[in-house]
Amino acid sequence: MFQTKFDRWLKENFVYEHHIRVVHLPTKLPSGVKVSELQSNQYHYLLTVKNKTKAEKLIEQLKAEGNAFKTKIAEGSHWYNPLINNKHKSFSFRIFWWVVIASLTIYLFVRIRAFLQSDFYFELKSHIQEVLGA
């Protein structure tokens, strides 16, 4: 399905996480970095960063310190991922159609309510009762 720029921006900022595997922890970690230990022979720590700019700063810091690392961008496990990251439907087009359908429903509700309070409705109702009663 066609993905808009807004869809790609949503995925980049809310769905994807940057996983950085390192041998040694850097001297200073940026805020928002989650550290977990790995049971691996090659890399000992997993740094999870949700923000792209923070991940880039962390990678620059790791390069400056000469630390061995490996990066990967993965989907985070969030409750809203199926809404934003649907492979077959665009999130922005779904929002557009939800707004159109909701506005049409409200418009029809208001128009029907106005019709039910009009004189024409009461006259029509009395004529129908008169025809069915005779």
Return the structural class: alpha+beta
Q: Report the count of strand segments.
A: 4
What's the number of structural domains?
2
Distance between the termini: 60 Å
Q: Which sequence of strands runs across the widest sheet?
A: 2-3-1-4
Average pLDDT taken over every residue: 91
Computed CA radius of gyration, to the nearest angstrom: 29 Å
**How much beta, percentage-wise?**
15-25%
Instruction: Write down the oligomeric state.
Output: single chain
Task: Write the CATH architecture name of the largest domain.
Answer: 2-Layer Sandwich
General shape: rod-shaped
For this structure, what is the CATH class of the largest domain? Alpha Beta
Instruction: Flag low-confidence runs.
Output: none
How do the helices and strands follow one another from N- to C-terminus? HEEEHEHHH
**Helical stretch tally:** 5
Helix content: 40-55%
CATH topology descriptor of the largest domain? Alpha-Beta Plaits
Largest sheet: 4 strands, antiparallel
Transmembrane segments: 95-116
Keywords: Membrane, Transmembrane, Transmembrane helix
